[in-house]
Specification:
Strand order of the largest sheet: 1-2-3
Number of helices: 3
Number of strands: 3
Oligomer: single chain
CATH architecture: Irregular
Distance between the termini: 49 Å
Radius of gyration: 19 Å
CATH class: Few Secondary Structures
Structural class: alpha+beta
Order of helices and strands: HEEHEH
CATH topology: Factor Xa Inhibitor
Number of domains: 1
């Protein structure tokens, strides 16, 4: 079976956190800025965390290798 390919546009737009969430640039900060309030422009700076539903769609469809792997915790049992 061939390797899956990550979506090139999604690789540039999203990055994953250590917990498996997605970071993205805030929307509404590109053009027609004179029509937007100072508060809206200020809030549009920086990054935001995507909601769980959007994260699931992006990771499943566009970034298959960015999905967080489930780790099995080994329980150390003490023998008496």
């Amino acid at each position: 079976m061939p390797k899956m390919k990550s979506h090139s546009g999604a690789k540039k737009r999203f990055s994953t956190t250590s917990k498996g969430k997605l970071k993205a640039k805030q929307a509404f900060a590109r053009h027609m800025m004179q029509n937007k309030s100072k508060k809206m422009k200020r809030n549009a700076r920086g990054n935001t965390i995507l909601c769980a539903a959007d994260t699931r769609i992006i990771l499943r469809s566009f970034l298959p290798y960015a999905r967080k792997k489930k780790t099995v915790k080994l329980v150390k049992r003490e023998t008496a």
